Amino acid sequence: LKSNMLIDKHFVISSVDKRIYGSFIEHLGRAVYGGIYEPDHPTADQQGFRQDAIEAIKALQVPIIRYPGGNFVSGYNWEDGVGPKEQRKRLLELAWWTTETNEVGTNEFADWAKLVGTEVMMAVNLGTRGIDAARNLVEYCNHPSGSYWSDLRISHGYKEPHRFKTWCLGNEMDGPWQIGAKTAEEYGRIANETAKAMKWVDPTIELVACGSSSSGMSTFGYWEDTVLDLCYEQVDYLSLHAYYNNNNNDTANFLASSMNLDHFISSVASISDAVQAKKRSKKKLMLSLDEWNVWKTIGSSRAEERWQIAPPEFEDVYTHEDALALGCYLITILRHADRVKVACLAQLINVIAPIMTERNGALWLQTTYYPFLHASKYGRGKALQAIIDSPKYDSKDYTDVPYLEAISVHDEEQDIITIFAVNRHLSEQMELDVDLRSFGNVSLLEHIVLEHDDLKAINTKDAPDNVVPHNGGKTTIDQANVKALLSKASWNVIRLQ
Ligand code: AHR
């Protein structure tokens, strides 16, 4: 199995917006309570935040985290989560049928975000609420002082405004499961009017309108077109959500699912550009893939017993093949670096997440942690359009699937070229020849590999190092020609200088 790749420093797709390595923490399952926040955990700080979780998240260098939902936000009264903790209400939470204690709210999350060095991507409730609650929340969070809501924040101990920059106008408003779901016309209007008011309070914010919950929604396409027709000039991004799994146990087909993501992104960009053309607008809208991941328990019902506090939910256990698929999605996102400016791996901890914790106990990293870590650490700079020649295969849902999924990123400051590559072949290694002619002579910094003989191998609390990357990838270099051996079913990070 042989593939070729030509990389030229002048074939620039775009600078990579670091926010594509964002993630998501929702008031769902044990993401907040028992994930980032567990006051009686041995590593908890004074505010109750688990230090072990902070360290694992810091290592990922996640630049932005979406909060507080997800479906949760569509029933959330943000006022219930601020002010003295002892006065906070316990409420029935209708997105997930749990009891929300409101121990963690906007200010606590802002504090936590500072500790991990990330920005907050706030979402407002356009399910049960609307313009008024949204503009008040912007005033509470971002206005310096001298108004009711900003002074209330100050009275809660937060003199400095949070200055949250990126805001989601609701969540998955096209989904019948959403509290307060809307038609495209209803949502487009409320998004437009809410956006106006929020930007009047703080003109520096950027807004994300909800696109479809998945490309499989019956309203997909019509939704984007109609919503943008109604709010195009007021918003800065359109969202996409995409989840995949191998529940049919067809790995070749599963690893090809990044082609679906690729098509989804291109389609949404096209619809957006069509609206731009119709409106004769100068503005090109960017995309926010603000939920994406492998999700196996998708569609499974909410907790069987209602109104529990933070019951374990959607604690998917990720395999080696899931990590490979995740690598393919990351490469796909990078290939669209000119349009996708924000992307959030959904989610970050305990709920469909790369990081798992045990109550009062250990933290371990799932297989999917590693490709995300590598992309976030090394995938910054300029994404380059590579010319790839790879043998192909057909699978159940996809034709002409290249065995090689790859891209490269050029960090101009340090003059480091990083190649991310997945060998999708399940039984054969691949010889990859890379022509880097425009870079002159290069030398190898490292070739990181994530591989495992068992596609279903997992990491657990007791065997946390079963699937971990190593540095022993086989790459040789002759001037500007790189020859790499990519093991069967492997994720590779080849770093050159
Ligand atoms: O990420 C889990 C859920 O998936 C989110 O709450 C929702 O937006 C999506 O359906």
TrEMBL record:
SUPFAM superfamilies per record: (Trans)glycosidases, Glycosyl hydrolase domain
InterPro entries linked to this entry: Alpha-L-AF_C (IPR010720), ASD1_cat (IPR055235), GH (IPR017853), Glyco_hydro_b (IPR013780)
Keywords tagged on the record: Carbohydrate metabolism, Glycosidase, Hydrolase
MF term (GO), any: alpha-L-arabinofuranosidase activity
Catalytic activity: Hydrolysis of terminal non-reducing alpha-L-arabinofuranoside residues in alpha-L-arabinosides
Enzyme class: hydrolase
Acyltransferase found in the keyword field: no
GO BP term (any one): polysaccharide catabolic process
Superkingdom as given in the UniProt entry: Bacteria
Pathway noted in the entry: Glycan metabolism
Ranges where the Alpha-L-arabinofuranosidase C-terminal domain occurs: 290-490
Span of the signal peptide: none
EC number: 3.2.1.55
PANTHER family reported for this sequence: ALPHA-L-ARABINOFURANOSIDASE C, ALPHA-L-ARABINOFURANOSIDASE C-RELATED
Similarity section: Belongs to the glycosyl hydrolase 51 family.
Subunit structure: Homohexamer; trimer of dimers.
Protein's name in the database: non-reducing end alpha-L-arabinofuranosidase
Taxonomic lineage: Bacteria, Bacillati, Bacillota, Bacilli, Bacillales
Protein encoded by which gene: abfA_2
